[in-house]
Amino acid sequence: MSKKWIFLVIVFIAIVMVFYWQFAISQESPKPAHQHAVETQEPKILYWVDPMHPSYKSDKPGIAPDCGMQLTPVYESDKPGQAPTGTVTLSARKQQLINLKLAVVTEAHIMQNIRTVGVLQYDETKVVKIHSKIDGWIEKVYANYTGRFVRKGQALFSIYSPELVATQQEYLLAVKAEKTLGNSSFPDVSSGSKALKESAYRRLKLWDVSDQQIKKLEETGTPITSVIFYSPLSGYVLSKDIFEKQRIDYQTETYSIVDLSTIWVMADVYEYEAGRVHEGQDAIMTLSYGSEEQFRGKVAYVYPELNNATRTIKARIEFANSNLALRPGMYANVELDTGHGSGLVIPVDAVLDSGKRKVVFVQVSEGEFEPREVALGQRLDENVVVTSGLNAGDKIVASGNFLIDSESELKSAFESMEKADHQHGQ
């Protein structure tokens, strides 16, 4: 649909609403004398025009000859140049008919923290997955179930590997060769024996054989057939994928262990609040099962993508968990500190948002309302912060503004048509 047809549809709807008001007013019962005194304050009518052809004017009300519609009055205050485009004048009866209500622009102290919910999960930076670097068979499993707590250096499993046994034998031979030939008068022989031992030692270390185990190997002179592997950190076993007598290779993930000394909370933040969330922001968390204990943390990262289904973004918040009261999978209530200040506040319902601009109708005098474009800030429950376009103390329309906007659009259309006809006549 072209812009011209959209414009005509809007004009038609507005005309119908104006005629409805006029009809409703004409059907009202006679008013007491004091109400007639109020009506006499209506602006002076200059003439009547055809709503579809504003160039047609009449000095009295009636029916338009071309379209058969009621003529529309043009008031003295409607003269171009006397008021901003779209300014509407309404009598007291019309204001009562549309249930018009006013609100005052106030300056308020703003301290609106973001309240949301989140889910606790593991700190991904403290998850370790353990693989064996050699092929072999599992002899013994020490940490034998998931969820078990293991300390750093605690035995996890032992493995028998023919390749590892052969390397130990090479190391023992290198140790004997160094003892025999290390003091040789021939430099090449002496350095060669030391290099052979060093090479075998590095291979054992690359296969995660500890210095203590290597020292024991040297003392006993007998290869260790079953080598024990130890936990590299203190934490909980997330997964265990090995069993006794099982053959494994370097691709087998034996254990997954997590350190829960810190924990992450993935909090959902609505799209309109996303601009007030940043890294380093303070956060307070309470658990949803009723505990009054508060946990304090900081926003570590704000994820870049938006969830199209919920219109939220994820904020990752880190909390210390030294007493292990926080468990992955728990739900939590989160409050983010956004600071405080002051600003102008108006009701949300006072704003007409067309998508391209946001408009508020301001009362400039008794019965006269001017459309004014505004810029908005954060939303505060039923109110919203205004960053430009209004001043403290301004009276604005808080209810009935949609009908006023319809008449404002109609008046603007009339003024545009009249101006175009005038230019065409010249």
Features:
single chain; alpha+beta; four-stranded antiparallel β-sheet; 7 helices; about 25% helix
Label the structural class.
Answer: alpha+beta
Strand content: 25-35%
Helix content: 25-40%
Q: The biggest beta sheet, please?
A: 6 strands, antiparallel, barrel
Distance between the termini: 32 Å
Question: Which residues sit in consecutive blocks of at least 5 with pLDDT less than 50?
Answer: 28-40
Shape: rod-shaped
Total helical elements: 7
- Total strands: the figure is 27
Spatial ordering of strands, largest sheet: 7-16-19-18-17-20
Oligomer: single chain
Cα-atom radius of gyration: 41 Å
- Please state the average pLDDT score: 80
Q: Could you please describe the fold and organization of this structure?
A:
The chain has a six-stranded antiparallel β-barrel with strand order 7-16-19-18-17-20. It has a four-stranded antiparallel beta sheet with strand order 4-24-23-22, covered by helices on one side. A four-stranded antiparallel beta sheet has the order 6-21-26-25, with no helix packed on it. It is an alpha+beta fold and 426 residues long. 20% of the residues are buried. A hairpin with a 7-residue loop joins strand 17 (282-287) and strand 18 (295-302). It has helices at 3-26, 33-39, 92-97, 162-181, 187-206, 211-220, 401-425, and strands at 45-49, 57-58, 72-75, 88-89, 101-104, 106-110, 114-122, 127-131, 136-141, 149-150, 155-160, 226-230, 235-240, 247-248, 253-258, 262-270, 282-287, 295-302, 312-320, 331-336, 341-347, 352-353, 358-365, 368-373, 375-380, 383-388, 395-399. It starts with a helix and ends with a helix. Among the domains are: 114-123 and 260-337, Elongation Factor Tu (Ef-tu), domain 3 (Beta Barrel); 133-251, no CATH class. The longest helix is centred in the last third of the chain and has 25 residues, at 401-425. The chain is rod-shaped. The protein is built from seven helices and 27 strands.
